[in-house]
Amino acid sequence: MALTIDIADAVVAELVGGAFSQPITPVRRVLPEYELADLKDLRVTVVPASVEIEGASRAVSQHDVRIDIGIQKKLGKAMDTEVAQLCGLVEEISEFLKRRPLVALPYVAWVKSANEPIYAADHLAEQRAFTSVLSVTYRALK
Fold it and tell me: Which residues is 52 bridged to in the sheet?
């Protein structure tokens, strides 16, 4: 399989084994689109996002693979409370993956994480839906 798909699958496997403040069922998808009704339940979607390749030596290339993890949920009446809880979950996932080796791919190393947007304000305003994207970059030499 493609390196990006393999890393995304390995991230899903790690998240499945994690303990978080809210139960999650992460899935890998290539197109993370859901109907608003589908967001009644918390969705954690892992998507291969990009790869940058550059020379590391004459024979080896460095592959920096970005994996996006979308955390989405339709909110109820207590928007401020629910947003705070979901932002906490995003931070938990970020901390869980930070410097964590991927068991399925021991030659891949965590490089960095970024959370942008922390949440999509337009989704909150227009749909009362929480959407956050955690981007995690992994490096592989091959």
Answer: 64
**Residues near 96 by beta carbon (within 8 Å), at least 6 away in sequence:** 14, 15, 18, 20
Preceding amide of 101 cis, omega within 30: no
Stretch (H or E) spanning 108: strand 108-115
Domains of the chain: which residue ranges? Answer: 3-29+39-135
Q: Under CATH, which number does the domain 3-29+39-135 receive? A: 3.30.2000.30
**Identity at 139, one-letter amino acid code:** R
Query: For residue range 19-53, what is the model confidence (pLDDT) as tens digits?
Result: 999 999 999 999 888 989 999 999 999 999 999 99
Supply the pTM of this predicted model: 0.94
Three-state DSSP class for residue 39: helix
Contact by Cβ (8 Å): 7, 139? no
